[in-house]
Design brief:
The chain has 3 helices and 10 strands; from the N terminus they run αββββαβββαβββ. It has about 190 residues and is α+β, with helices and mostly antiparallel strands. It has 2 domains: about 35 residues; about 130 residues, no CATH class. Strands 3, 4, 6, 8, 9 and 10 form a 6-stranded antiparallel sheet that branches. The longest helix is centred in the N-terminal third of the chain and has 34 residues.
Length: about 190
């Protein structure tokens, strides 16, 4: 009687032979999947960290006024610095380049006033810039009334330290996120 193994293939027929498992190929596939998963986790972690950094340097400029101090002001209510890229000020729809031009366009003369530079400035978190301050409360009241009558409008564009940019208007709490601050022609740029 010959020794026959029940699972041994008949001699000369390799097609009917049972397949041996290739453990090296299986291990390579598992290692590739683990590597891909690690890459996805690392990418997601980098995205979350970028968003956290973006939130840590987020500026929020608001323009307003206070009649108590007789001034127009800008306040950075955000947590990061605001880099002011451009300021445009219009009276009756026409761009003005400095406060003297604004006063002349309004037919206004102040007994005394001080200004702070905003265009090209960096406004720190929590900082208030007294943009235009009048020495006399009556001058402030006249300026505000004339400004309203002549459609005094201010548009400001600023960016964060990461390059995220926004456009806002003075005395309005709304702002619009934009890709970048567009270049403003020199004749339309308010230079403070």
């Amino acid at each position: 009687m010959a020794d026959e193994t029940p699972n041994a293939p008949p001699p000369g027929n390799p097609a009917t032979a049972p397949r041996a498992r290739n453990w090296d190929a299986f291990a390579a596939i598992v290692a590739s999947l683990v590597g891909l998963l690690a890459l996805l986790v690392a990418g997601y972690t980098a995205h979350i960290q970028r968003e956290q950094v973006r939130a840590e340097v987020w500026p929020y400029l608001i323009g307003g006024f206070t009649s108590v101090d007789s001034e127009l002001m800008w306040i950075n209510k955000g947590v990061g610095p605001a880099i002011v890229k451009s300021v445009q000020l219009r009276v009756d729809g026409q761009p003005r380049r400095e406060w003297r031009e604004v006063f002349d366009a309004l037919g206004f003369e102040a007994s005394g006033w001080r200004q702070s530079f905003l265009n090209g400035n960096v406004v720190s978190p929590g900082e208030t810039v007294a943009w235009l301050r009048f020495a006399d409360r009556g001058d402030f009241d006249r300026f505000m009334a004339l400004g309203q009558a002549h459609g005094l409008g201010v548009e400001l564009c600023y960016c964060s330290t990461l390059g995220d940019c926004w456009q806002t208007r003075w005395n309005q709490s709304s702002r619009e996120a934009i890709a970048e601050c567009r270049a403003v022609p020199a004749g339309h740029q308010f230079g403070d």
